[in-house]
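Lecture notes, part 5. Sequence design as translation. It can be helpful to think of inverse folding as translation between two languages: the language of shapes and the language of residues. The source text, in structure tokens, appears below.
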């Protein structure tokens, strides 16, 4: 597997984690909201409310683990981007970039 493919897969993994966190946070909010609604029902048993809050707490722990994972993996990807940027800056002259942009703009006209 080429180095580029490895980095693309790494980036895809980071995006998958971020997407999963987003979905789990929405579920967490629904669980907390459901527990709140259950608490406002006069006939609700305290055990049911406690169970609902425990489910939300368990999901919160999973979200925290995923956030830690994202923080760790994201740092590696950011370092890759910085290194790539510094390599590009060292090898490409600004006038080449300007001429590329001008050529693209002329094609769009």
């Amino acid at each position: 597997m080429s180095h580029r493919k490895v980095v693309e897969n790494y980036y895809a993994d980071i995006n998958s984690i971020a997407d999963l966190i987003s979905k789990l946070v929405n579920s967490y909010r629904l669980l907390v909201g459901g527990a709140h609604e259950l608490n406002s029902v006069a006939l609700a048993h305290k055990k049911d409310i406690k169970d609902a809050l425990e489910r939300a707490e368990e999901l919160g722990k999973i979200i925290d683990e995923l956030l830690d994972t994202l923080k760790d993996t994201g740092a590696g990807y950011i370092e890759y981007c910085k290194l790539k940027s510094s390599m590009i800056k060292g090898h490409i002259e600004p006038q080449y970039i300007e001429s590329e942009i001008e050529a693209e703009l002329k094609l769009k006209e």
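The translated text above is only one of many valid answers, since several sequences can fold into similar shapes. Residues 3-81 form a domain with the Helix Hairpins fold (CATH 1.10.287).
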